[in-house]
Design a protein that fits this description.
Layout lengths: L22 E5 H8 L16 H11 L11 E5 L1 H8 L17 E6 L7 H10 L6 E6 L12 H13 L8
Parallel strand pairs: 3-4
Antiparallel strand pairs: 1-2
C-alpha cells in the first residue's frame, strides 16, 4: 500500500463533475455535516466546544467577499485539493515520495478523520524510511479538525512535546 486511497475512502460519492472548476459553493450547514461525517452520532453534540464552529465559520466565510451575496451565504472553497486527490492520490500516483524525507517526522492523526483514514496515515508512516526518527500518534475522539475540538490540548501537547524534545541519544 503506497498511501493511496481505497474505494472505501471519502471519495465514495463518485468522481467530481468535469471540468471541476476553480471552486465549489459550500453552505455552513454542509461544512458542519462534513466536519462531523465519521463521528458517532452519540459523540457529535460535545465534540466541538460551544461557539467554536460558529466562530470558525463566521471568520472563514468573512474571507470570501462573494459569500454574503448568496442566500444562504456560500463559501467558495478551492477545488485544488479535490483535483489533486482525484488525479494523483486516488489514481495511484503520489505527488512526492515520503521515503525521501530526511528530517525527524511527527504524524498526528485523529480516529474520526474522514479526510485521512487511519489506513492512509499508517501507510504513509511505513514509507518514512529515511527519517532519523519518526512518530505516529493516534488521537482519540477527534476529526481532521481536532485542533479546534474538545481534545485540542492533547493535539497541542503532542506537537509541542515533539518540537521541544531533545534529540534522542542514539542520534547525538
Amino acid at each position: 500500500m503506497r498511501g493511496i486511497r481505497s474505494a472505501q475512502s471519502e471519495l465514495e460519492r463518485g468522481p467530481p463533475p468535469r471540468p471541476l472548476g476553480a471552486y465549489r459553493l459550500v453552505p455552513k450547514d454542509s461544512a458542519r455535516a462534513r466536519w462531523l461525517k465519521d463521528v458517532p452520532a452519540d459523540k457529535q453534540a460535545d465534540l466541538i466546544p460551544p461557539g467554536v464552529f460558529e466562530a470558525w465559520a463566521n471568520a472563514t466565510w468573512a474571507t470570501d467577499p462573494e459569500s454574503s451575496k448568496q442566500n444562504p451565504p456560500m463559501l467558495r472553497a478551492p477545488n485544488g485539493v479535490a483535483e489533486d486527490s482525484m488525479n494523483y492520490w486516488s489514481a495511484g500516483k503520489a505527488l512526492y515520495d515520503p521515503g525521501k524525507i530526511t528530517v525527524p517526522t511527527l504524524l498526528l492523526h485523529a480516529e474520526w478523520d474522514a479526510d485521512l483514514p487511519s489506513y492512509l496515515a499508517h501507510g504513509y508512516f511505513a514509507q518514512l524510511k529515511n527519517t532519523p526518527y519518526k512518530r505516529l500518534i493516534e488521537l482519540s475522539k477527534g476529526t481532521h479538525t481536532v485542533m479546534m475540538e474538545k481534545n485540542r490540548m492533547q493535539f497541542f501537547r503532542e506537537l509541542m512535546g515533539f518540537l521541544d524534545e531533545e534529540k534522542p541519544l542514539a542520534l547525538k
